[in-house]
Amino acid sequence: MTAVLALTTSLMWGLADFGGGLLTRRMSALTVVVVSQALAMAVLGAIVVATGGWSEWGPQLWFAVAAGVVGPVAMLAFYRALAQGPMGVVSPLASLAVLVPVGAGLALGERPGWLQAVGLLIAVGGVMLAGGPELRGAPVQRRTLLLTLVAAFGFGAVLALIEHASTTMTGLFLALFVQRVCNVLVGGAALYAQVRRGTPALPEDGTGELGHPGYGRRVLTAALPALAFVGLADVAANGTYMVAAQLGPVTVAAVLASLYPLVTALAARGVLNERLRAVQAAGAGLAVFGTVLLATG
């Protein structure tokens, strides 16, 4: 069951990233993050009220708060790294996020069998190769590498934190709601700072200040279903990962949940006709092989 839930996590995160990537072509990345998470927060708030989730309030929710604060920071660092440097370098380095929860699991005493250990190494290597690493080309700026490593640590920290945020189903909904509240607060503060610096939150129609003031709102309204999907898919992924990490070894759950770049790449291949590079295809094959070893080990 751990393997199934973790792979479901990868599917949801991969589709959410693909949808978010498409939306950022039409509006600010921070706008996508804040609106999608706000929509998810509203849905989760209704579920918490309906299920009486407030009764699960306790100190374990500090893990959800921490995940909700770290997540947007990591995402912002990731987007900025992608804007500054080649994706073929940034994406594989960001996939090192899996090492954080795996290391935490090992530190807490988890000891996978030898077959699972081999599967872990193969799957991690496959995820990195699936990003299409660029081994040649111009040197990458130190700032870009630093931002990428910050993003990787942040994504990994979210995986390590969120598993401790609840132990019951109603508590799961409350933890996810608290995480989304923090996501919106942190992302909203960053969006406000962006607007103060002169970058609009909503897209303009290309005619500058004399353009139609309602254009950006119309674009946002038309994108609301897609934004809701991105936010709810992210929520679903967090939920399935929390359950997977509680039912089985964190080392296995974390690696399988980190296969989402493959889902994003395959979605781009199917929808946008983007071709996988040879190194990405090889990485996908290794990741699948490592997954089989993890699931059967």
Please summarize what this structure is.
It holds the Pfam family EamA. The chain is mainly alpha-helical and 297 residues long. It has helices at 2-23, 29-51, 61-84, 87-94, 99-107, 114-130, 142-162, 169-196, 215-247, 250-257, 260-272, 278-296.
Distance between the termini: 13 Å
- Fraction in helix: over 70%
**SSE pattern, N- to C-terminal:** HHHHHHHHHHHH
List the uncertain runs. Answer: 207-211
Computed CA radius of gyration, to the nearest angstrom: 19 Å
Number of strands: 0
Total helical elements: 12
Shape: globular
How many structural domains can be distinguished in the coordinates?
Answer: 1
Structural class: mainly alpha
Strand content: under 5%
Give the overall average pLDDT.
Answer: 79
How would a textbook summarize the main sheet? none
Describe this structure as you would to a colleague.
The chain has one domain (2-204, 215-296). The chain is mainly α and 297 residues long. The chain contains 12 helices and no strands. The longest helix is centred in the last third of the chain and has 33 residues, at 215-247. The two termini are 13 Å apart. The chain has helices at 2-23, 29-51, 61-84, 87-94, 99-107, 114-130, 142-162, 169-196, 215-247, 250-257, 260-272, 278-296. 76% of the residues lie in helices and 0% in strands.
List keywords for this structure.
DMT family transporter, globular, EmrE-like, 76% helix, 12 helices, single chain, transmembrane, EamA_dom, 297 residues, mainly alpha
